[in-house]
Design goal:
mainly alpha; two-stranded antiparallel ribbon; about 70% helix; globular
């Protein structure tokens, strides 16, 4: 028995060694490429580093700069506006597309590919195509509006329409959300619909009482990912759009007309790699991280009130 126990202990130690060896590349990658830069940016947030000279410790001076920075408030406002409008809109559009394509029809997979493909195109190509489509003189969007005798706009060259144009362009990539919803719809047990039909529930009641509750985990997932992606992405599009309208004599950042497209992620880039204030840019990056983390934690806290998981017996 002692020999068997020793042999078993040796096998467990060998398994543990192999387990750590197999995990070592991932752990090393996270330490070098994630944890290392994360800690470095935290240290840099207390420093002034113009990149051309060694960094110098300035304490809370970057925080004082943040408090008196008008572009910070504008960037936060623009990002909040785009997030609050676009995330629910993309979720609803993605769900409607998924419901329309959740059919057992011949050739339905072709339509799914058609709606999904635009979300997989390169971001630069998408931005350039929509830059042409929003052109106020010969763009496709104004041309279609003119056919129906609707008022036309300067779109990304108009401070009042620049953010709506950005949101409209984002609908081009709702194919990813559609696929997630489609997978959720196909994972709902058919027995639930059969039981509801036997009880005399109409299609509308089946949607509200079966489909929607069973989709709440997927809805919660798309909500969290939508908030994270909207607040931390969009750099490529806004960078290309704002290249059309560079900073004026009274502006020091590239934010489009009246800085209407100055999203937070674009402002961080501008501070770091255009104005070479890497320390202040690190502080801005941490502010963005804390905002996204706080919103995510709040959503997780509230999720218990409306997210239903199959097999859940109570709250």
């Amino acid at each position: 028995m002692v020999r068997v126990a020793r042999r078993r202990g040796g096998m467990l130690r060998e398994d543990a060694i192999w387990g750590w060896l197999l995990q070592a590349p991932v752990i090393a990658g996270l330490a070098v490429f994630v944890a290392g830069p994360l800690l470095a940016s935290l240290v840099l947030s207390f420093m002034d580093w113009p990149m051309l000279t060694p960094p110098s410790f300035v304490g809370l001076d970057n925080l004082n700069t943040l408090i008196n920075d008008p572009f910070f408030v504008q960037a936060i406002g623009n990002t909040a506006f785009v997030t609050v409008i676009s995330v629910p809109l993309y979720m609803v559009v993605g769900l409607l597309l998924a419901l329309a394509l959740d059919r057992k029809l011949r050739g339905i997979s072709i339509y799914r590919v058609i709606f999904f493909l635009p979300s997989q195109l390169p971001a630069v190509a998408n931005a350039i195509v929509w830059l042409w489509m929003f052109n106020p003189n010969y763009g496709l969007v104004n041309w279609v509006l003119g056919i129906f005798h609707l008022p036309m706009s300067s779109w990304i060259q108009d401070p009042g329409m620049a953010k709506p144009a950005l949101i409209i362009m984002g609908m081009w990539t709702t194919g990813t959300t559609m696929i997630v919803y489609l997978a959720g719809l196909q994972g709902i047990p058919a027995e639930l619909y059969e039981a509801a039909a036997i009880d005399g529930a109409s299609a509308q009641r089946r949607f509200w009482n079966v489909t929607l509750p069973m989709l709440t985990p997927v809805i919660f997932f798309t909500l969290i990912m939508g908030i994270i992606n909207t607040t931390q992405s969009g750099f490529t599009t806004t960078y290309i759009f704002t290249a059309v309208n560079g900073p004026t004599a009274t502006e020091t950042v590239n934010g489009g007309p009246g800085n209407a497209l100055l999203l937070f992620i674009l402002y961080i880039y501008d501070v770091a790699f255009v104005n070479f204030h890497m320390g202040y840019a690190s502080l801005l990056a941490w502010i963005l991280f804390l905002i996204v983390l706080s919103v995510t934690l709040i959503n997780f806290k509230l999720a218990g009130r409306w997210v239903y998981y199959e097999g859940q017996t109570g709250r």
